[in-house]
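User: Could you walk me through two proteins back to back? I'd like the raw sequence and the structure tokens for each, with a short line separating them so I can tell where one ends and the next begins.

Assistant: Of course. Protein one, sequence then structure:
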Amino acid sequence: MTAENEKAGSSAAAADGTTKHVPSASVSDATDSPAPPYSEKPPVFPSPSGSGTSTPRRTTQIPLRPAIMNQTEEEAQMAAAGLTEEEKELRKREKKKGGLSKAQREELAAYERERAAARKERVDTLAKKLIDRISIWTETDKGPDVTKAFQEKTRLEVENLKMESFGLDILHAIGQTYLQKATGLLKSQKFLGIGGFFSRLKDKGTIAKETWNTISSAIDAQMTMEEMAKMEEKGGEDWTDEKKVEYERRVTGKILTAAWRGSKFEIQSVLRDVCDEILNDKKVPMSKRLERAQALVISGEIYSKAQRNPEEEGDYMAFEQLVAEAAAKKESKKKGKDKKEHGHHLHSHQADAQAAADDLPNVPKA
């Protein structure tokens, strides 16, 4: 009776959640007893430390300072704003576009359209003027007297323009462009048009070279200005008044060189479009376009051969002398090489022009 009361009391205590002393069980009792109920707990994984030993670590940590320092200011601002990865990517794309707002991009696009329209209007106006100028030869019987009169009129234009500052360079640039475009069209009408293909290829090479010359001259001017600023800041006995005047003259020459090459590039770019306008107009018969090309060959030859006499040199050549001095002081060897190449290209253009002129009717042979 007493044993039954003790068992009932222990069962009641277990039901009430109270703990009482229970005698230790034997090994057989432990193996036969059921397993304790499963309780799901989050596992804790040790993270490797710098020494290679496993060290327990908190699941929530404050970001380390080096990680913050490695972020850029923009990334830190986006992280603080709580932006998603897609929003961050959009921000980066907007920055690649120049960091312009939508209104600024629209304003820039409107400016580009306005600039393109102004250029087209300029090209159309110059094309009409060029057609009127060469119509003296193209709209006549092209007899010897008419051809000679056309050549004399072109020479008078050359005489007036060559007295201007950089006049000779402008004339040579115009003549080179006329010869390239005109001979390209004339050669395209010959055997399989192979000559026209090489002329167009040569034209693209000239454009690439002129573009590089324009960019390099601007970079050269910037580097010379920075060099002068460093020497002036450094001072010392080497920085004398004579040295300063010499550098100022050199910087002026570099700036003028960059400005002139930019202007020359613009002149030739517009003139190429003008020549394409009058030579590639599908509304005009091919026979008339070939006559225009022949007239451009006659004019281009005269422009490319323009020269000044020693008596014609004056104060208007001051800027040209500064440009020449800047080029000479930069690298005399390179100048000689470029001069040789320029002479070769000029001779090549003149040879092409002469070959094209030989095919023209009533054109005096050189």
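----
Protein two, same layout:
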Amino acid sequence: MYHHKNRNKRLSPSQEFIMYMKKAQVKMKLSTSTAFMKLIQEKKFLQESKLEYQKKEHVVMNLLVKLDTGGNANILTLRSFKQMYPENVTENDEIINADFVTKSKTMLIGYSGEKINNIGTMTIKCGKDRIPQVFFITQTDGPNLLSLQGCRALDLVKIN
């Protein structure tokens, strides 16, 4: 266990991991990759660091959407949500342990007039400028949709 210089404050697991790597390099004069391989064998550091890292990890991925310039809402299907966050969906298609999903009572109506099961909303940062867009998570067979407002915010369409 390492402590911060001049303090009795305990370092976080990731800070311990970095300190351990630095000391391993200096003491053993090993290359970074060799020191890292030695650390892999010490499961304590990897398990603690991995848990902390996963909480802070921001994944960048491609999400296939159809541009729905006649739509008023961004739609993310539960099928896509499961691919993005498999650990947050039960076998019964219930979303669990997802504090980034907000319950929503908004009634969604499809273009042919059918009601769409709205599970909740989440914000996804989209495009190279990471513009936040609110998506309704729905239990539909259709594609993910980006509304006119979302298309305009991301400069995907322009109205002359």
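The helical segments are 13-28, 32-41, 43-56, 78-84, 148-153.

Let me know if you want the two compared in more detail.
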